[in-house]
Amino acid sequence: MNVASPRVEEVSAGVYAYVQPDGSWWINNTGFLVGRRGVISIDTCATERRTRAYREAVAKVTDRPITTLVNTHHHGDHTFGNYLFPEATIVGHERVREQILADGIPGYRSAWSASVEWGDLEAVPPFLTYTDGVTLYSDELRCEVRHFGLPAHTTNDSIVWIPERRLLFAGDLVFNGGTPFVLMGSVTGAIEALDLLRELGAETIVPGHGGVCGPEVIDRTQAYLRFVQLTAERGRAAGLTPLEAAQETDLGEWAGLLDPERIAGNLHRAYAELDGLPRGAPIDLAAAVLDMITLNGGQPLTCHA
């Protein structure tokens, strides 16, 4: 499969999205703001090659230094490239730092296609952290980095909200064209987080994966998560395992989303919550990943990174 090349989109004056098609496993979006003194980057990429390409794309827009790097959450597609920004202050939620220090460069990458060239990766966590949020300025442009205080996609998701422009970098709280994924977070928490996103009144959204879009992506992501909830309730009532529930479920309107096997991982999290486990509490991630592989025909999960 040929995946289109990444592209830079100026989504507002001096604010850019770096969109990496096709937005499937490990192929995320980043972004950057160009000010007089320097550049604020929002996230990095999964592989050394992709992160170096991102830096080259920024350099084509401006010769100013990258002074600040914000991590929206700890997942490697957004943070593995941190080490290639030695000149930047790396900013993230305190749990992003904790998780990167705990995980390092995790071995679960082996669940994806063996052909991925990860590069010579080094785990580098944020060294400026916050609990609820922090405000950054690109010249006079206010950028609000917020953690909503609840597990959603992970336990440590943050957004970058630029109120003056009605512009939102949503991280992986929303996926545009890809299957939402909450295995390491919370189904109910993600639904609540999306309600909070909607209240912002964003006009332009840069999702963690997929093309730049409008606020309609919030409704669609939330509708999928409610489908996961309903599927879990029915499967658990019928005595099915998460995998069995996934195998028996007709994805219907969600079948065309990228990486549909994520339904199995999402059901593991939904079952845990139905069983009374706190949001974001540790569950058996290896079992969930194996179920996704089973649902993928027993083949490693597809990755074009």
Structure report:
With 305 residues, the protein is an alpha/beta fold. The chain has one domain: Ribonuclease Z/Hydroxyacylglutathione hydrolase-like (Metallo-beta-lactamase, Chain A, 4-Layer Sandwich). Helix content is 31%, strand content 22%. It contains eight helices and twelve strands. A seven-stranded mixed β-sheet has the order 1-2-3-4-5-6-7. It has a five-stranded mixed β-sheet with strand order 8-9-10-11-12, with helices on one face. α3 links the parallel β6 and β7 (128-130). α5 (216-237) crosses α6, α5 packs across α7 and α7 (262-274) crosses α8 (285-295).
Provide tags for this entry.
single chain; 305 residues; alpha/beta; Metallo-beta-lactamase, Chain A; 8 helices
Low-confidence stretches: none
- Number of helices, where a helix is a run of at least 4 consecutive DSSP H or I residues: 8
CATH fold call: Metallo-beta-lactamase, Chain A
| Order of strands, widest sheet | 1-2-3-4-5-6-7
Give the domain tally. 1
CATH architecture designation: 4-Layer Sandwich
Query: What share of residues are in beta strands?
Result: 15-25%
Mean of pLDDT: 97
Gross geometry: globular
Compact description:
The protein is α/β, with parallel strands linked by helices and 305 residues long. The protein has 8 helices and 12 strands. It has helices at 48-61, 76-79, 94-103, 187-200, 216-237, 242-248, 262-274, 285-295, and strands spanning 7-12, 15-19, 30-34, 39-42, 66-70, 89-93, 128-130, 133-138, 141-147, 158-162, 167-175, 204-209.
